[in-house]
Structure formats: C-alpha cells, structure tokens
Amino acid sequence: MPVADELAVIEAMSIEELRERWRTTRNIDPPPSLSTRLLQSVLAYDVQVKRFGGLSQSAERKLARIAARLEKDPNAAALEDEGPAPGARLVREWGGKRHEVEVLNEGFAYRGKIYASLSEIARTITGARWSGPRFFGLKNRRKAA
User: Fold this and answer.
1) How is the chain split into domains, by residue range?
2) Angle, nearest 10°, between helix axes 36-52 and 3-12?
C-alpha cells in the first residue's frame, strides 16, 4: 500500500483503533494520556520510517544532547552549542592560505574530500592535533556570545 494511503487510514482511525495499531506495531501499550492527534503522528512517523528509513545516527545523537540539556534546564536554548547548520561555510587563514570548509548534514567537505570532524580537517591543515571547533573559531565565538 502506498505511504499516502497508509497515512490516510491512520488519519481516519478512532482512538481505540489507533491504540490497537500501536500495540500491534510496537508490541507495547500506548501511554494512556496520548491524544488522538499524537497517536496518529507517532504511527504515521512509524510508517514513514519503515518505508524510507529513520533518522541518521548523528541526528539521533544531536536530539539526545538537546533533550538532555532541556531536561537539565527547561529554559535552556535548545540548539545552543550545536554548531553551524548544514550549508554553512567555515573559513580560516593558516600558513598564508585560505582554507574553506562546507558543513554537510553528515560531516564536512574540505578540498573535495568528506571528513567526519572538524578536528580531522584542522589536523590535515596544520599537521598538529587541534580542536577543530577551536581552530575554526567556533568555541571562542560561542563563549563570547
């Protein structure tokens, strides 16, 4: 069945049907306080994950960090210390040369190669072990803000 059709079926279900589908697909009873809308949203997400795949490991880790920060301090800025957004360009002058890095969804691009961390790139540029965020000025900028 196409995903759109499955989502339409979920949208039309009663709360009792939604709870039963939850039990069937998740092998556990749904929390009794979940609203119809929230049950629909979670079940629709499950359908899409099954068909298209879920979040990347890095996205899951990022969400876990944000959740932990908000549990500790509900008034904290949710995205504080999460680094630059995909598409951002980081520029650093080093050794008389300009070095430009593009932030990707999964890693960083530098001179046609993909790196998992900014520290790897900083090491490639300098030949020494650097904190990548510090090398590119991200640590200092965050503290100043």
Assistant:
1) 3-52, 55-83, 89-144
2) 160
Instruction: Name the region of 107 (left: φ>0; alpha: ψ -120 to 50; beta: rest).
Output: left
For the segment 72-104, what is each residue's pLDDT rounded down to a tens digit?
Answer: 888 776 655 567 878 889 999 999 999 999 999
Contact between residue 23 and residue 31 where contact means Cβ atoms under 8 Å apart: no
Supply φ then ψ for residue 25, to 5 degrees: -85, -30
What does pTM read for this prediction?
Answer: 0.49
Q: Tell me the two tokens of residue 59.
A: 């996205």
pLDDT band for 1, please (50, 70, 90 cuts): confident
Cβ pair 39, 15 in contact under 8 A: yes
